[in-house]
Amino acid sequence: MSVNMNLNDDALQHETEPKGAIINGNKPIDQLEAANRFILAQAHEKMHDNRLWDLRKKRDAQMHLIPEWEELRQLASDIKEHTLEHLAYYLEIFEKNAKANGIHVYWAIDAEECNAIAIKIMKDHKTRTLVKSKSMLGEECGLRHAVEKEGIIVIETDLGERIQQLDNEDPSHVVVPAVHKSRTDVSRVFTKTLNAQAGNNDIHYLAETQRETNRPYILKAEAGMTGGNFLVAETGAVVVCTNEGNADLSANTPKLHIVTVGIEKVIPKLEHLAVFIRLLSRSALGSPITQYTSYFRGPRQQGGEMHVILVDNTRSTRLADKQFKAGLKCIRCGACMNTCPVFRRSGGLSYGSTYAGPIGLILSPGYNKHKFRNLPFASTLNGSCANVCPVKINIHEQIFTWRVVLAEKGELSFTKRVMMQAAGKILAHPSLYRAAISNADRALKYLPHFLVYNNLNTWGRQRDLPFTPKETFHSWYERNYMKKGKVHE
Amino acid sequence: MKVGLFIPCYMDALEPEVGVSTLKLLERFNLDITYPFDQTCCGQLMTNTGCQKEAAATEALFVKNFAYFDYIVMPSGSCTHQVRANFTAIEQTEDVKHVRRNTYDLVEFLHDIIRVDAFPWASFPYKVAIHYNCNALRGLRHASMSELREPYFSKPKDLLKKVRGVEFVDLERPDECCGFGGTFSVFEEGVSAKMGQDKVIDQYKSGAEYVVSADSSCLMHQKGCAQRMKLPLKYVHIVQILNGDLQ
Amino acid sequence: MSNRDLILNRIRHACTVEYVELSSVPFFHQKNLDILDKFKKVFTEMGGEWLDKDLKNPLKAVNDKLASAKNICSVVSEVKGNYEITSQSSPNSLHDIDFAVVRASFGVAETGSICLTEKDLVVNTLGYLPQHLIVLLDPKEIVENLHDAYARPEWKIYHYAALHSGPSATADIEGVLIRGAQGVRSLSLLLF
């Protein structure tokens, strides 16, 4: 038996960390190749699967404590749909109110513009150090790298994100960025970059090391940056949720607070915020709320400055696409990743995209159909993702629709295309189909191609082949029923 | 009541005995059952790969074969879901709509349409773990889903409770996908096999002697994994128990 | 055309539905809920330390905690500190405070949260840079759930307010819970 049912912690700490997808320009990401390497690192894969499944279980437990859970999900979905239908209206209200509170508001068409605006604000304030709270939009825009290129030191303040920054890796999960790493992996990174004791993989020690090495940067930084989980139009406020309080530290310590946020994050009113806050952390981590739910309605009274950059970066295009528009409802809770059996066994970095897992399968091809053409196939279409989604995005249906769109756009792999053309022809013609599977010998020869869909080696590498029976149902029926005169049209 | 029987392609070729059980079981209820001879496949293979154009003729053939029945019944939740939810590659004529509306998976047909209240001929004194095919579970709603806050129900369990002796065991991850996923099982072989291995380990740890499902496709995959791992689990389609074939 | 107008035009082009007002969100109040009991339970679950009120000396639990502390910054009249700040204090100067004592505007039973506004904190970083935070809360100011919380006036008055639910925490390494990730290492609360 090749599968180890009881991998222990020792194995995990001695196993080399699996790395993510190989990125090669615009070439299609081979998610499966990276996933296979992840699975080969058996102890890492098992830890990853167990940790995320544990989050899923905690989410379920929270759900069972809230009688109105499904009603809240429906409300959240309705509010998001309503807001997206009237997005321009609410963005203008947000802008008006934010400005009235003293916030500077900017609009960026794409990632490049977002980065340029942020850099200009920082340069105008003679920024040498930026302390940054985790933001998926920032990841999407490659903001950290752009800012670093300008000679500004950027410090990620979220522990997981900081680990990933120091390891020169993208976050592997929207909520737990270093979920794929063992404590020994983290210890190696910290030894190399933070001068931590070599070989000390005590988790308290590692967390403390990051706290103590980050703190001086937080105290001296000229600028702080956060993303935004929600924008409340009614009050012109930015809401940020963290467990570490690092958004509050980043925004409140330096004089300058810059927010980069996607335009889809706006919601109408405070009463709507309550619905989302009730759902967000319960869905993400199975806790009732994040430790900190922070509300920035304007600059600090004493000499603070607050700048909000509203970023489009393909969102308005997606909004016009009826098939995929619902992806804009996403609140980045990561519940779909936690529940996804493929994600748990592949690791987030295997997707080679800012957005991984189920939500990544439907968002990523919207940014680049060619590069991410394989992602919608990294799913069994099991539908668990849509069920845990707090805003009821029809994720699995969109994965399915992406396959259709990609096939239409000629973005199917050669193997898939040729195989489907052959299968489509044979399955549409009873005589061809019967010929293909008419007896056991022939069945053995043809079945793999048309029913098991591929060659025997692929099926049989880790699974025994199905037993091939003497006759098909069809010929059994013919033998037993047709002779009795029960012939049908 | 004219009932058309559809036997999925993989079952036709690899699990013909499940087809036989299905026909025999349905015959017990005095239905007018016909097995249209020119049937092939539901087209899910092409549809799930995004190949609408390639799926169209297969869908059209299916409709041609089954348009004249009051009910179309098949021992597969997954194929039923394909017909009901995804037959969109062809023009939606009255025949197509009729077929899509009246196609039922065997479990639904027994539970909701003819409402069988007993299987007196069947007994199955074993520990059984139920496997829900994802399309049957989340598409057809064979049972309540662990992700939602909803009252518990399970149509396959309701039916099996009417069989003498069946003892149910619970899985740690009751409705986690097993990784078959049609073409996923070969196109994404590494992840598929890993999911299958984890699934059968969960089944093994539950103390199950048999794993029962309304879909043979998932079972072929799980059986392949379990055999390779030398786990003493047996895999049967629900109809084989309901028809009393295994005693 | 400015970026702003370009983006807004694209959005308007994509959205063609007539405006319909959203129906208001219910408060989802539970029947027979002991709000104080629920608050205490969830506050503790979130990692908060519950300080029991001594009948004779209500602030005893707070003063006990502060007994051996070096730098104590209290911005409540009931507790005396040794570290003065004003609204003009520089935010990063608060880094050497061991204990901060503040009064929360209100609490939320559903999530065990307390709301600290810029007024409560005097300097916003007082909620984050000190090593430990002690919070006083008037039990009359505990609302049932987040729907009640966001109906409060604070959100329309202040430029900054945050719900704190336990201390700073992380489980980013192997899912092991660590308190005091970046902000305060402990959050204690006395109803007073």
Keywords:
heterotrimer; B: 247 residues; alpha/beta; Rossmann fold; 2 domains; four-stranded parallel sheet; 8 strands; C: 192 residues; five-stranded parallel sheet; four-stranded mixed sheet; 11 strands; 22% strand; globular
Structure characterization notes:
The complex is a heterotrimer of chains A (489), B (247) and C (192). The mean pLDDT of chain A is 93. In chain A, the strands form two sheets. In chain A, strands 1-10-7-4-2-3 form a six-stranded parallel β-sheet, with helices on both faces. In chain A, strand 5 and strand 6 form a beta hairpin. Chain A contains 24 helices and ten strands. With 489 residues, chain A is an alpha/beta fold. With 247 residues, chain B is an alpha/beta fold. Chain B folds into two domains: 112 residues, no CATH class; 116 residues, Rossmann fold (3-Layer(aba) Sandwich), CATH 3.40.50. Chain B has 13 helices and eight strands. Chain C has six helices and eleven strands. In chain C, strands 1-11-6-3-2 form a five-stranded parallel β-sheet, sandwiched between helices. Chain C has a single domain, classed as Rossmann fold (3-Layer(aba) Sandwich), CATH 3.40.50. Chain C has 192 residues and is an alpha/beta fold. The interface between A and B is large, with 89 and 82 residues. Strand 9 of chain A pairs antiparallel with strand 8 of chain C.
